[in-house]
Fold this sequence. Notes:
alpha+beta; 3 domains; fatty-acyl-CoA binding; Acyl-CoA_Oxase/DH_mid-dom
Amino acid sequence: xxxxxxDLMNVESRFSDEEIALRDQVAEFVDRRIRPHIGTWYxxxxxxxxxxxxxxxxxxFGMHLQGYGCAGRSAVEYGIxxxxxxxxxxxxxxxxxxQGSLAMSAIYKHGSEEQKKHWLSQMAAxxxxxxxxxxxxxxxxxxxxxxxxxxxxxxxxVIHGQKRWIxxxxxxxxxxxxxxxxxxxxxxxxxxxxxxxxxxxxxxxxVPTNTNGFKAEAITGKLSMRxxxxxxxxLKAVTVEADALLPNNPGLKGPFMCLNEARYGIAWGxxxxxRDSIEAALDYSAERLQFNKPLSAYQLTQxxxxxxxxxxxxxxxxxxxxxxxxxxxxxxxxxxxxxxxANCRAAIEIxxxxxxxxxxxxxxxxxxxxxxxxxxxxxxxxxxxDEVHTLILGQKLTGEAAFR
Length: 404
């Protein structure tokens, strides 16, 4: 029998023994360390940083990367872990995404061998926390308009600019900062620019957060992702050595390669929030009596539960198909947009509908669906909004780029 009553299609039967063992390990961590406290953390807007070493011990940081102290898990295993974490809370899943899919992936995909050896093992062990500085106050969906700039001055890189909505920045020890760099400065620094001799290029830099001029402050007043940490970053003449530059994959290709890793994880994670909401509604409806019988005995309640579970199972199968294709090296980039768009869209509707089964009780932190739905407002926005992914898929279908 499947572990979850919502598994009408027996998705679990498609998992290997090793995948099930990982799922159970992460689920046990969520049940023991997250579920008992998440309502309080969310209500008080606290990121429980004491969980970070435990996440590292579970091998969750950079778990899909090979070598350098990373777990070397498959794409499907990574996805399964993200589903279980987000069943606890989107904010806690985001910690793993920022650390592994963004900050660590940037160094792994674009860094030198020396940079990888220096940083990745420390980050996998949770001894160093990273953040990923791409989004700016006026450059969200269109990062090509970023204003943060790095210049080559007296043999060092000097960075000026601002970043916004940067996960973990105020507790991170290292930041991956993306900036535009004049080509003439790259040439002066001895960096290969191909056939470009003018203009600017987007490049990534590894910036220790204790560098003079680096300032990160948590964004407050959030109505979503409250048990999480997103920050503003200010960079005032932040000066780093020549070897802070990530040498590989220049241009926007660099950050987008990392974003695609995070987007893939979201396709799985959103289904964790959806599954938890349905199962909470199942439990509540079986116990809550109205007109002398449980809510679960009413046709309207059963219709809600069935409709939600059908969408859940479709989303889980989509995520699994993506993961198997990714592991086989056959996943196409537009398919990540299919997974991110479809599963975020489905998950937020599931969580909202699940909340209705709780009536007024459902607006409290005692029950998870509305917390999940609120978090998913952020999840559907970051790593590409619904609109951006729609246009990516529209371009795939029509051959026409309609972004501008």
